[in-house]
Amino acid sequence: VVATLQTASFARVYATYGGVFIVMSLLWSMKFDNYSPDKYDIIGALIALLGFALFITHQEIEKKQKQVYFE
Prior knowledge:
about 0% strand; about 75% helix
């Protein structure tokens, strides 16, 4: 419901939050619950971080393109 009431860029924010949440929850469980992640946990966290990195770099590229276009 919340996502339908947001602007078009909300999907990026939501996906970025999800990626960071996955990684932070894995780190939290390692530190406080003495959890040892297996290779699939690490692979999943890396995929989430890769998605986060793609969103961030895509936003920066869009900003630069808009600046060049409007100058």
